[in-house]
């Protein structure tokens, strides 16, 4: 839609593509809907053209041509006119995390040449802004200039981030870009604070897996675009997401300021199937919500840092189920008895409530497996009855001796569920005796046989 609008207006009004793009971007900012930009990181022209084709086939709205990734001698100029997508041309200096060791005259000269032959945007490092201005003094303006700042070591404080942003505006940035490193997911809160206060078209993100939420929620908090890769392994910066995954799994183009945010808190978390399951359910039920992975080291620190952003709920996985219990405003009675939670829900009054649904799901699966061995249960599955398949049947764990392997947060829920369902005895096996003995003591304090 963006590309079609741009081409139509260029033809009918005779204005430049960059001028139309900035108008479109400003409209997008007002609507809080971000654009999809694919970074092209190929080393040859042929491979770069193939990556642009991937971007177009996945409905990207822009591409970033990384000249500093191309091998020496490649005819990069031919890429400016290749394909239909608007282009950002970047030739990142090695001193700012890129691959170019060229002199500033040569490196920035390529960006100036890119504008001369039709590039829509160029990306100039804030540190090189003065040099660039000297090189272009007296020349007619072409295209739009992104001034960028990258920090591959840390996330500066909120005040410093605001000062960096202000310097970009002073230096005449058409668009501002700030990319910093999230060493802890709580660092992202500072980035989102500054982003929400931005007055001009702005791209702001946190790099690394811990910063992924800033990329996924760009549309919610006002970033002009999010950078993504053609495929996994072709990233230009840590934490980029493949374009197909961004558009299909996370439905990125539907995320805007009113979209509800849910996520799974864990460490590790990248292996989790929860985003695929929940986002598919949201799509099927036409719910304006997104479910994202959250790599969290300190659950209390994360929840405090993001409390004012009012995420709508979380799933909690290892190793945070016990620690998260102390971080909610209200506890469900069963969760309090178990001593661990796997779900946090934000209530209508803004408070958070913790639940434990592990025991119901896990014990239910065990019960169904045991019931499947019962001929009566099998007969009911095959018969067209309008009653529950297990209705009136004895609980399969009733009177059984249950052996539980593990004594972590999930195991606490299963231990509680087993005895709640009638197990006569429970034996806990664990790598460390102390943790197993602790769980045994807690079960006995609840009056449960263990």
From TrEMBL:
InterPro entries: Aldolase_TIM (IPR013785), Aminoacid_DH-like_N_sf (IPR046346), DHquinase_I (IPR001381), NAD(P)-bd_dom_sf (IPR036291), Shikimate_DH-bd_N (IPR013708), Shikimate_DH_fam (IPR022893), Shikm_DH/Glu-tRNA_Rdtase (IPR006151). Keywords: Lyase, Schiff base, Signal. Residues 1-18 form the signal peptide. The keyword Signal applies. Residues 397-445 form the Quinate/shikimate 5-dehydrogenase/glutamyl-tRNA reductase domain. HAMAP family: AroD. This is Shikimate dehydrogenase (NADP(+)).
């Amino acid at each position: 839609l963006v590309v079609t609008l741009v081409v139509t207006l260029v033809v009918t009004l005779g204005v430049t593509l960059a001028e139309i793009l900035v108008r479109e971007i400003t409209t997008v900012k007002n609507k809080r809907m971000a654009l999809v930009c694919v970074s092209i990181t190929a080393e040859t022209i042929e491979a770069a053209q193939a990556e642009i084709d991937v971007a177009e086939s996945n409905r990207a709205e822009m591409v970033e041509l990384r000249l500093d990734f191309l091998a020496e001698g490649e005819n990069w100029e031919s890429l400016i006119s290749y394909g239909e997508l608007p282009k950002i041309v970047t030739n990142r200096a090695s001193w700012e995390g890129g691959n170019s060791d060229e002199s500033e005259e040569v490196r920035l000269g390529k960006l100036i040449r890119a504008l001369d032959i039709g590039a829509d945007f160029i990306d100039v490092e804030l540190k090189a802004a003065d040099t660039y201005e000297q090189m272009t003094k007296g020349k007619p303006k072409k295209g739009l200039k992104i001034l960028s700042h990258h920090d591959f070591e840390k996330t500066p404080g909120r005040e410093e981030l605001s000062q960096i942003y202000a310097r970009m505006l002073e230096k005449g940035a058409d668009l501002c870009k700030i990319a910093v490193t999230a060493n802890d997911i709580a660092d992202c809160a500072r980035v989102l604070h500054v982003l929400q206060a931005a007055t001009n078209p702005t791209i702001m993100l946190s790099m690394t897996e811990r910063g992924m939420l800033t990329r996924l929620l760009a549309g919610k908090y006002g970033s002009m675009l999010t950078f993504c890769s053609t495929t996994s392994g072709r990233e230009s910066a840590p934490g980029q997401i493949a374009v197909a995954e961004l558009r299909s799994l996370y439905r990125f183009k539907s995320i805007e300021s009113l979209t509800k945010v849910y996520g799974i808190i864990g460490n590790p978390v990248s292996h989790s199937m929860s985003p695929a399951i929940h986002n598919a359910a949201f799509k099927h039920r036409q719910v304006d919500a997104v479910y994202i992975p959250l790599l969290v080291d300190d659950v209390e620190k994360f929840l405090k840092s993001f409390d004012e952003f009012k995420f709508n709920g979380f799933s909690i996985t290892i190793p945070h189920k016990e620690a998260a219990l102390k971080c909610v405003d209200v506890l469900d009675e069963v969760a309090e008895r178990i001593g661990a939670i796997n779900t946090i829900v934000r209530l209508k009054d803004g408070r958070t409530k913790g639940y434990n649904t592990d025991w119901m799901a896990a014990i239910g699966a065990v019960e169904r497996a045991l019931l499947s061995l019962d001929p009566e249960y099998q007969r009911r599955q095959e018969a067209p009855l309008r009653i529950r398949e297990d209705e009136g049947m004895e609980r399969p764990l009733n009177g059984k001796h249950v052996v539980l392997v593990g004594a972590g947060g999930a195991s606490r829920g299963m231990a509680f569920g087993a005895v709640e369902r009638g197990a006569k005895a429970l034996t806990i096996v664990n790598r460390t005796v102390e943790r197993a003995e602790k769980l045994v003591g807690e079960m006995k304090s609840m009056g449960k046989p263990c």
